[in-house]
Amino acid sequence: MKMPDTYLKAAQELGFTAAAPVNGSAVVCRPEIRAQCTPKKCKNYAANWICPPGCGDLEQCEKIVSEYEKALLLQETHALPEETDLKHAAALAREHNQRAEKLIKIIRRKYPKAFLLTTGGCNLCETCTYPGEPCRYPQKQRGSLSAFGIDVSELCSKGGLAFSFEKGKVTFVSCILI
Prior knowledge:
alpha+beta, five-stranded mixed beta sheet
């Protein structure tokens, strides 16, 4: 299936550095990536509904991914001065995710079941209800690429997008499953 050019154009207009279509089968959940989601390795572990264990086990994530035939990768890269603090980088990640939210609203007009996989944990609420109460915004619920065990570098490569960790730069990636 071909990705409509209107979605690629909308991604560009929203401010993404790059956007690329990939076949849904290119989105692979890997246990070795999911293994990075532990309390010792990630502050988001057990902190919200889109990170483990709130998002379910890897088999549940694989089931969600397998339901989609195509995907749209969204990427943006920012230069970061050496003195940049983590709050600034976190703000850039939130802005990236907000742009992805805007794009999925456009895509859902035609594909109401489109599903967004974002960078990092959920940041919709100041304080998440996890684990005591249900998510306040289940209609906006999304997934995390890392929590789903997706190798972002490999996925970007399949979409023809460069991805690397470089000093002085930060790259954010999201994926909309269609």
